[in-house]
Amino acid sequence: DAKTTQPTSMDCAEGRAANLPCNHSTISGNEYVYWYRQIHSQGPQYIIHGLKNNETNEMASLIITEDRKSSTLILPHATLRDTAVYYCIVRPPRDDKIIFGKGTRLHILP
Amino acid sequence: EPEVTQTPSHQVTQMGQEVILRCVPISNHLYFYWYRQILGQKVEFLVSFYNNEISEKSEIFDDQFSVERPDGSNFTLKIRSTKLEDSAMYFCASRPGQGVESGNTIYFGEGSWLTVV
Protein backbone atom coordinates (compact mmCIF):
# COMPACT_ATOMS: atom_id res chain seq x y z
CA ASP A 1 0.00 0.00 0.00
CA ALA A 2 2.38 2.66 -1.33
CA LYS A 3 1.80 6.12 0.11
CA THR A 4 4.62 7.69 -1.89
CA THR A 5 5.73 7.65 -5.51
CA GLN A 6 9.35 8.20 -6.45
CA PRO A 7 11.27 7.85 -9.71
CA THR A 8 13.12 4.58 -9.93
CA SER A 9 16.46 6.18 -10.68
CA MET A 10 18.14 9.52 -11.30
CA ASP A 11 21.55 10.80 -12.34
CA CYS A 12 23.24 13.96 -11.14
CA ALA A 13 26.63 15.45 -11.94
CA GLU A 14 29.09 15.77 -9.09
CA GLY A 15 29.04 19.26 -7.58
CA ARG A 16 25.56 20.02 -8.81
CA ALA A 17 22.40 20.09 -6.73
CA ALA A 18 20.51 16.82 -6.69
CA ASN A 19 16.74 17.30 -6.56
CA LEU A 20 14.82 14.18 -5.66
CA PRO A 21 11.03 14.39 -6.07
CA CYS A 22 8.38 12.52 -4.13
CA ASN A 23 4.62 12.44 -4.61
CA HIS A 24 2.40 11.80 -1.60
CA SER A 25 -1.01 12.95 -2.82
CA THR A 26 -2.94 11.05 -0.12
CA ILE A 27 -0.98 12.47 2.81
CA SER A 28 -3.03 13.31 5.88
CA GLY A 29 -2.77 16.53 7.84
CA ASN A 30 -0.76 15.08 10.69
CA GLU A 31 1.58 12.86 8.67
CA TYR A 32 5.23 13.73 8.44
CA VAL A 33 7.48 13.34 5.40
CA TYR A 34 10.73 11.53 6.21
CA TRP A 35 13.74 10.97 4.00
CA TYR A 36 16.30 8.23 4.50
CA ARG A 37 19.04 6.94 2.28
CA GLN A 38 20.86 3.65 2.01
CA ILE A 39 24.37 3.58 0.70
CA HIS A 40 25.30 0.19 -0.71
CA SER A 41 25.40 -2.55 1.96
CA GLN A 42 24.92 -0.07 4.80
CA GLY A 43 22.03 0.63 7.15
CA PRO A 44 19.37 3.22 6.28
CA GLN A 45 20.55 6.69 7.25
CA TYR A 46 18.16 9.38 8.43
CA ILE A 47 18.42 12.57 6.41
CA ILE A 48 15.61 14.96 7.28
CA HIS A 49 11.90 15.20 7.99
CA GLY A 50 9.17 17.83 7.92
CA LEU A 51 5.47 18.44 8.33
CA LYS A 52 4.49 21.65 6.54
CA ASN A 53 7.43 24.02 6.51
CA ASN A 54 10.58 23.68 4.49
CA GLU A 55 13.44 22.25 6.51
CA THR A 56 17.21 22.42 6.20
CA ASN A 57 20.00 20.68 8.04
CA GLU A 58 23.66 19.96 7.41
CA MET A 59 22.85 17.19 4.96
CA ALA A 60 19.97 18.45 2.86
CA SER A 61 16.94 20.66 2.38
CA LEU A 62 13.35 19.48 2.24
CA ILE A 63 10.86 21.49 0.23
CA ILE A 64 7.20 20.60 0.82
CA THR A 65 4.54 22.07 -1.47
CA GLU A 66 1.82 24.18 0.06
CA ASP A 67 -0.82 21.50 -0.53
CA ARG A 68 1.63 18.94 0.94
CA LYS A 69 0.99 16.54 -1.91
CA SER A 70 4.61 16.45 -2.97
CA SER A 71 8.07 17.24 -1.73
CA THR A 72 11.62 17.54 -2.98
CA LEU A 73 14.81 16.55 -1.23
CA ILE A 74 17.73 18.74 -2.25
CA LEU A 75 21.36 17.77 -1.82
CA PRO A 76 22.98 21.13 -2.55
CA HIS A 77 26.40 19.98 -3.76
CA ALA A 78 26.29 16.31 -4.59
CA THR A 79 29.43 14.23 -4.17
CA LEU A 80 30.21 10.69 -5.26
CA ARG A 81 29.52 9.56 -1.69
CA ASP A 82 25.90 10.63 -2.12
CA THR A 83 25.31 7.75 -4.53
CA ALA A 84 22.61 5.74 -2.73
CA VAL A 85 18.96 4.71 -2.69
CA TYR A 86 16.83 7.55 -1.28
CA TYR A 87 13.55 6.75 0.42
CA CYS A 88 10.67 9.17 0.87
CA ILE A 89 8.36 7.99 3.65
CA VAL A 90 5.06 9.36 4.91
CA ARG A 91 4.43 8.58 8.55
CA PRO A 92 1.84 9.52 11.18
CA PRO A 93 3.38 11.13 14.28
CA ARG A 94 2.55 8.18 16.51
CA ASP A 95 3.21 5.37 14.06
CA ASP A 96 5.76 3.12 15.64
CA LYS A 97 7.54 1.93 12.53
CA ILE A 98 8.84 3.00 9.15
CA ILE A 99 7.74 1.21 6.00
CA PHE A 100 10.25 1.39 3.18
CA GLY A 101 9.32 1.46 -0.48
CA LYS A 102 11.69 0.95 -3.39
CA GLY A 103 13.06 4.49 -3.29
CA THR A 104 15.07 6.36 -5.92
CA ARG A 105 18.49 5.08 -6.90
CA LEU A 106 20.61 8.23 -7.24
CA HIS A 107 23.83 8.00 -9.26
CA ILE A 108 26.28 10.84 -8.86
CA LEU A 109 28.39 11.07 -12.01
CA PRO A 110 32.01 12.28 -11.91
CA GLU B 1 27.63 11.03 17.51
CA PRO B 2 25.73 8.20 19.21
CA GLU B 3 24.97 5.25 16.98
CA VAL B 4 23.30 1.86 16.98
CA THR B 5 25.91 -0.89 16.98
CA GLN B 6 25.37 -4.45 15.80
CA THR B 7 27.32 -7.69 16.14
CA PRO B 8 28.37 -9.77 14.35
CA SER B 9 28.79 -7.91 11.09
CA HIS B 10 28.63 -11.19 9.22
CA GLN B 11 27.64 -14.69 10.31
CA VAL B 12 27.50 -17.93 8.38
CA THR B 13 25.37 -20.67 9.89
CA GLN B 14 24.09 -24.07 8.89
CA MET B 15 20.43 -24.59 8.21
CA GLY B 16 18.57 -25.59 11.35
CA GLN B 17 21.01 -23.89 13.71
CA GLU B 18 20.03 -21.17 16.14
CA VAL B 19 21.37 -17.68 15.59
CA ILE B 20 21.43 -14.68 17.90
CA LEU B 21 22.05 -11.24 16.47
CA ARG B 22 23.01 -8.57 18.93
CA CYS B 23 22.40 -4.86 19.01
CA VAL B 24 23.27 -2.01 21.32
CA PRO B 25 20.72 0.76 20.71
CA ILE B 26 21.50 4.39 21.26
CA SER B 27 21.66 5.19 24.96
CA ASN B 28 18.41 6.52 26.45
CA HIS B 29 16.36 5.37 23.48
CA LEU B 30 13.16 3.62 24.46
CA TYR B 31 11.86 2.01 21.26
CA PHE B 32 13.69 -0.75 19.44
CA TYR B 33 13.25 -2.44 16.09
CA TRP B 34 14.48 -5.19 13.84
CA TYR B 35 14.29 -5.00 10.07
CA ARG B 36 15.68 -7.26 7.41
CA GLN B 37 16.71 -6.89 3.79
CA ILE B 38 17.04 -9.85 1.50
CA LEU B 39 19.65 -9.22 -1.19
CA GLY B 40 18.24 -6.99 -3.90
CA GLN B 41 14.92 -6.44 -2.12
CA LYS B 42 13.29 -3.79 0.06
CA VAL B 43 14.02 -3.20 3.71
CA GLU B 44 11.24 -5.02 5.59
CA PHE B 45 9.90 -4.38 9.09
CA LEU B 46 10.07 -7.35 11.44
CA VAL B 47 9.23 -6.21 14.95
CA SER B 48 9.06 -3.26 17.30
CA PHE B 49 9.71 -3.45 21.04
CA TYR B 50 8.89 -1.09 23.86
CA ASN B 51 8.73 -1.37 27.62
CA ASN B 52 10.03 -4.93 27.53
CA GLU B 53 7.42 -6.26 25.20
CA ILE B 54 6.66 -6.55 21.52
CA SER B 55 4.47 -3.67 20.40
CA GLU B 56 4.05 -4.77 16.78
CA LYS B 57 5.29 -7.54 14.52
CA SER B 58 4.98 -8.36 10.84
CA GLU B 59 3.91 -11.59 9.17
CA ILE B 60 7.57 -12.41 8.67
CA PHE B 61 8.14 -12.52 12.42
CA ASP B 62 6.80 -16.00 13.05
CA ASP B 63 7.42 -18.40 15.92
CA GLN B 64 10.99 -19.00 14.79
CA PHE B 65 11.87 -15.43 15.74
CA SER B 66 12.12 -13.90 19.18
CA VAL B 67 13.48 -10.69 20.64
CA GLU B 68 14.84 -9.90 24.04
CA ARG B 69 16.33 -7.07 25.99
CA PRO B 70 18.35 -9.09 28.49
CA ASP B 71 19.90 -6.11 30.24
CA GLY B 72 19.83 -2.34 30.08
CA SER B 73 21.89 -2.04 26.93
CA ASN B 74 21.49 -5.02 24.59
CA PHE B 75 18.64 -5.92 22.28
CA THR B 76 18.78 -9.31 20.58
CA LEU B 77 17.07 -11.11 17.73
CA LYS B 78 17.03 -14.89 17.91
CA ILE B 79 16.20 -17.18 15.02
CA ARG B 80 15.51 -20.57 16.51
CA SER B 81 16.02 -22.85 13.52
CA THR B 82 17.40 -21.04 10.53
CA LYS B 83 16.20 -21.67 7.00
CA LEU B 84 17.91 -20.85 3.73
CA GLU B 85 15.41 -18.06 3.16
CA ASP B 86 16.50 -16.36 6.38
CA SER B 87 19.69 -15.28 4.60
CA ALA B 88 19.54 -11.50 4.68
CA MET B 89 20.93 -8.34 6.21
CA TYR B 90 19.32 -7.70 9.58
CA PHE B 91 19.12 -4.12 10.82
CA CYS B 92 18.56 -3.06 14.38
CA ALA B 93 17.11 0.39 15.01
CA SER B 94 16.05 2.60 17.89
CA ARG B 95 14.33 5.90 18.62
CA PRO B 96 14.12 8.14 21.65
CA GLY B 97 10.36 8.27 22.20
CA GLN B 98 7.87 11.04 22.79
CA GLY B 99 8.66 14.16 24.70
CA VAL B 100 12.03 14.87 23.13
CA GLU B 101 12.91 16.68 19.96
CA SER B 102 12.87 14.31 17.00
CA GLY B 103 11.62 11.62 19.37
CA ASN B 104 9.99 9.85 16.50
CA THR B 105 13.08 9.61 14.32
CA ILE B 106 14.37 6.07 13.96
CA TYR B 107 18.12 5.47 13.71
CA PHE B 108 19.52 2.33 12.16
CA GLY B 109 22.61 0.28 12.73
CA GLU B 110 24.94 -0.93 9.98
CA GLY B 111 23.45 -4.39 9.93
CA SER B 112 24.38 -8.01 10.47
CA TRP B 113 24.69 -10.08 7.34
CA LEU B 114 23.37 -13.60 7.92
CA THR B 115 24.15 -16.36 5.46
CA VAL B 116 22.41 -19.70 5.98
CA VAL B 117 23.99 -22.63 4.15
Outline of this structure?
The complex is a heterodimer of chains A (110) and B (117). Chain A is built from no helices and nine strands.
> How large is the radius of gyration of chain B?
14 Å
Overall outline of chain B? globular
- Estimated share of beta-strand residues of chain A: over 45%
Helix content range of chain B: under 10%
Protein architecture, described:
Chain A is mainly β. Chain A has strands at 9-13, 18-23, 32-38, 45-50, 55-56, 61-64, 70-75, 84-91, 104-109. In chain A, 0% of the residues lie in helices and 45% in strands. Chain A has a five-stranded mixed sheet, with no helix packed on it. In chain A, strands 2-7-6-5 form a four-stranded antiparallel sheet, with no helix packed on it. By secondary structure, chain B is mainly β. Chain B is built from no helices and eleven strands. In chain B, strands 2, 4, 5, 6, 9, 10 and 11 form a seven-stranded mixed sheet that branches. In chain B, a hairpin with a 2-residue loop joins strand 5 (43-50) and strand 6. At the A-B interface, strand 3 and strand 4 of A face strand 4, strand 5, strand 9 and strand 10 of B.
Topology (SSEs and partners):
The complex is a heterodimer of chains A (110) and B (117).
Chain A: E1 9-13, E2 18-23, E3 32-38, E4 45-50, E5 55-56, E6 61-64, E7 70-75, E8 84-91, E9 104-109
Chain B: E1 5-7, E2 10-13, E3 19-24, E4 31-37, E5 43-50, E6 53-57, E7 65-68, E8 75-79, E9 88-95, E10 107-108, E11 112-116
Parallel strand pairs in B: 2-11
Antiparallel strand pairs in B: 1-3, 3-8, 4-5, 4-9, 5-6, 7-8, 9-10, 9-11
